[in-house]
Amino acid sequence: MVIDVHVHTFPDDMAARALEKLVAKADRAIAPVADGTVAGLLDQMRAHAVDYAVVCPIATRPAQFDGILAEALALRDGERGGEAARHLIPFASVHPADEARFAHLQQVAERGIRGIKIHPYYQPCVLDAPDMLEYFRCCRDLGLIVQCHCGFDIGFPFDPVCNPERIARVLHDVPGLRLIAAHLGGWRQWEESLDHLVGKGLYLDTSILAMNATEEAPQRVLREHPADRLLFATDWPWLSFRDGIDFVRSARLGANNERAVLGGNAAHLLGISVPAPW
Q1: Best label site of 23, 33, 99, 249, fewest CB within 10 Å?
Q2: What does 87-121 look like in DSSP terms, one character per residue?
Q3: Residue segments in the chain with a per-residue pLDDT below the cut of 70
Q4: Tell me, what's the pLDDT at 276?
């Protein structure tokens, strides 16, 4: 079983414009590998035998909560088609500046959505600030998984709002939080991940850009972090499933560990027991 814990999709009528805007924001240093639609995601999942993918929306304004939750429920409940309902696991997003953030987190949990996505650049916040620690405690107490962008973001000037050292403080101050630190704990900050996060019990997802796949530091994180705390991810549509799987396999973790990273660990975290039929 293969499970990608970090993908993004956009509405059909907005996908092309959204991707172009993001490419321009990154000064054209990146390019998508697909069209960013739900149909495009499912087509590529089927082609590469990916059984499930966690869809990670980002509320860039507090007012987007209701629409994002409605779309997550539509995906889950079959309104976007049977294949989407079988193979996509929607998360929600609650903006840290939302005055109703704690009530909205509770609403997410009550509606049966498994987790939320945080992106400290698009939702300006500092991960280990006191108000964010309260936010994370609420997530923990509600049983919500937190999928969090970590490290630099290619579309922004560097600001250490979500670097590995801050993530380590969150882990210390909010024990029991089920946190997925994306991009191996910190995109372009993998040396700091080695210093502060490797071996510390949190989940690291394996999403990086193809240009980083052969660099020494991300390879070291992939090899040195406990295999049962690594989760396959691509950040699709920014990395193909083939390249993401090849990156995991390049670490030569052994057959059992490789199966765990590509899907077994995520299945346990998400409560999945069997592959979904195509």
Answers
A1: 99
A2: HEEE-B---TT-TTHHHHHHHHHHTT--EEEE-TT
A3: none
A4: 87
pLDDT per residue as tens digits for the range 157-167: 888 999 999 99
Q: How far apart are CA 62 and CA 137, in angstroms?
A: 19
Helices 216-224 and 241-250: crossing angle in degrees, nearest 10, is 70
Which CATH number is associated with domain 3-270?
Answer: 3.20.20.140
For residue 39 the two structure tokens come to: 């149909």
How far are the Cα atoms of 50, 109, 157, 213 from residue 141, in angstroms, in the given order?
Answer: 31, 10, 34, 36
For strand 145-148 and strand 179-181, is the pairing parallel, antiparallel, or unpaired?
parallel
Predicted confidence (pLDDT) per residue in 258-274, tens digit: 999 999 999 999 999 98
What's at 233, amino acid-wise? A
B/e letters for 125-162, b = 16+ CB within 10 Å, e = fewer, are bebbbeebbebbbbbbeeebbbbbbbbbbebeeeebbb
Cα 111 to the center of its chain, rounded Å: 20
d(CA 8, CA 71): 13
Q: What is the rounded CA–CA span in Å between residue 91 and residue 111?
A: 11
Q: What is the DSSP annotation of 119-170?
A: -TTTTT--TTSHHHHHHHHHHHHHT-EEEE--B--TTS----TT-HHHHHHH
Calpha distance 118→97 (Å, rounded): 12
DSSP one-letter code for 80: T
**Positive/negative CA dihedral, 65, 57, 263, 265:** negative
The predicted structure's pLDDT at residue 6: 98
What local confidence, expressed as pLDDT, does residue 90 receive?
Answer: 98
Within the chain, what is the greatest distance between any pair of CA atoms? 47
The angle formed by the CA atoms of residues 36, 37 and 38, to the nearest 5 degrees, is 125
Sign of CA dihedral 156, 158, 164, 166: negative
